Amino acid sequence: MRIGIFFGGPSREREISFAGGKTAFEYLDKSLFEPVPVFVDSFGRFILLEKPLMYASEIREFYPSRSIQQTGFKTYIESHPELANESVPSEIGVEISPEQFKQHFDFVFLAMHGPDCEDGAIQGLLEWYKIPYSGPGLMGSAVGIDKILQNEMITLVNGQQKKSWTLRYDQWIPNEYPILFRVLKKHLGLPLVIKAPHQGSSIGVAIVKDDSLEEFISAVNQCFFQVELDSATWTALGGSEKQAWAQKVANLDEGIGFPLVLNGEMIYHPAKLIDVLDSYFSTANEPAVLSSANGEDQVLIEEFVSGQEFSCGCIQLDNGKPLALPPSEVIKMVQVFDFNAKYKPGASRKRIPVDTTLELNQEIQKVIATVFEQLGIDVCVRIDGFLTPEGTIVLHDPNTIPGMSPTSFIFKQMAEIGLNVTHALTYLVRQSIRERIRSGKNIWQLRTLLDGLDAKIRAENAKSKPSKFIVFASTDEDYIAARSKYGRMNAEGEVKPIPVLHASDGKYYVLTNPLMFKEYVADVEALLHTERHPLLTETAQRAAETTAFYAGKVNYQVSVYNDLESLAV
């Protein structure tokens, strides 16, 4: 089956999308699928990407082309609107139209995030052209993109009490900032959590911890994706400092992105921004308000919830019933779990399950599964939340296309039921086809596609494959390398990889699949002589039939050997 891997798109999460696209490209089961990378640019063009470009470090490394980037700035294509009607350079790929999709792939794996990408827009386009796609359908996608609507619907489902208020852009009036801050402090208290309602990957999230009007104004502007800049600050900057500031604005993980608007003028490029600001402050003393052309019209302001932060995935059994995976606790090394805390190494740790009672972990799973069903989501979701000191579960931010790097939450949690990344990707493809059939559209063609895939899965599982040991030392570097090799070998499907840790005690341990999804080798060693948590055992038992279909018989017991010779025997 040809799998079109869609990544990129217009959203601020496009680099996270690129990481997910790489995962699908590298770890899809090559015995079942042919991956076809499709880069979606900010103009909405679909580009059959040259495969070597999938190994670039970021999108800006190859798009726009290097000749365009020779400006002293790293920019995305939207900074060059003149290229919208130009042909895509042949060294990048070939542009195709939706009418041509069926010529190139049979199924679309969506690795895109944010507005236009997981809100039902691209899903609706694919349904129109009768192309099955991964993840939730139209209803679940529409709900999953709107944090304000999510809050209201989750409250209807489980009755949780979380104070919040929605601020419209037309209510964000400079001379009313102080009174608004006083009202919010009175009704919601401090800290205040400010969120851009249509963003993911913790982009557009700020926490106002102190009783500071300046901090509050900055946080709200951040979530409206606008910057207020005064004359004194700008004129104090030197030439290189202005360049660095303009580059930061262009960076999607820390800036508001281009194009942006100042007094009705659209600005596309960092160099132009510097010229415009120089001209503006040569005559004006008023602050310059720079707004993203793709900002938000309202922001969500919530009370701060104290407690253990967790993230819990939920998938479906073949009959459509939800299976909540073991929740992961987020242990933050920083105060705010923002984009950097989520994706920068060392900013947070994760453990499975949450460090609480079995009963409370089970209750988290129960409410996650209920919300999954009641919000009309299918296939897969990741829902975040807090467990308060009083034992109350507060949910927020259902994510219908979770981040999909090889060590993302969803893959760590699916590993606990016996599925490696390759198995998990196969599950997402197959279950998505199953759910597209349930929608009542194009059902006989989809049933034929599903039957063919099932036959191939069973045939591959019936094959006898030689075992291949991956022996590695007890260092983080060796563990990361072994984890990568383990993933690649699973995807190639020619051998059965068996990871073996030469531990610090000198013994050799044959590791289980879940132990290949930890963050550090110290986490692995800590679990070698620890009894498996009962929540993990019972969740794996509920998933046993599903796991067996994709992965065959799964072993959750670590084996230990004194030397390699006895291991080989």
Overview of the molecule:
- Helix content is 37%, strand content 20%.
- The chain is of the alpha+beta class.
- The strands form five sheets. Strands 14, 15, 16, 17, 18 and 19 form a six-stranded antiparallel β-sheet that branches.
- A hairpin with a 2-residue loop joins strand 10 (260-262) and strand 11.
- It is globular, with a radius of gyration of 25 Å.
- The model has no long low-confidence stretch (mean pLDDT 93).
In summary, what is this structure?
The protein has 569 residues and is of the alpha+beta class.
Gyration radius, to the nearest Å?
25 Å
User: Major β-sheet, in short?
Assistant: 6 strands, antiparallel
Strand content: 15-25%
Bulk shape: globular
- Helical percent range? 25-40%
Question: Mean pLDDT across all residues, rounded?
Answer: 93
Number of strands: 23
Which short descriptors sum up this protein?
569 residues, alpha+beta, six-stranded antiparallel sheet, five-stranded mixed sheet, 20% strand, globular
Topology:
Layout: E1 2-8, H1 14-27, E2 34-40, E3 46-49, E4 93-96, H2 101-104, E5 107-110, H3 121-128, H4 138-144, H5 147-158, E6 164-168, H6 177-188, E7 192-195, E8 205-208, H7 213-224, E9 226-229, H8 231-235, H9 239-250, E10 260-262, E11 265-267, H10 270-283, E12 288-292, E13 298-303, E14 308-316, E15 322-324, E16 328-332, H11 339-343, E17 348-351, H12 358-374, E18 380-387, E19 393-399, H13 409-415, H14 421-438, H15 443-462, E20 467-473, H16 476-492, E21 496-502, E22 508-510, H17 521-527, H18 534-542, H19 544-551, E23 559-561, H20 564-568
Parallel strand pairs: 1-2, 1-5, 20-21
Antiparallel strand pairs: 2-3, 3-4, 6-13, 7-8, 7-13, 9-12, 10-11, 10-12, 14-15, 14-16, 14-18, 16-17, 18-19, 21-22, 22-23
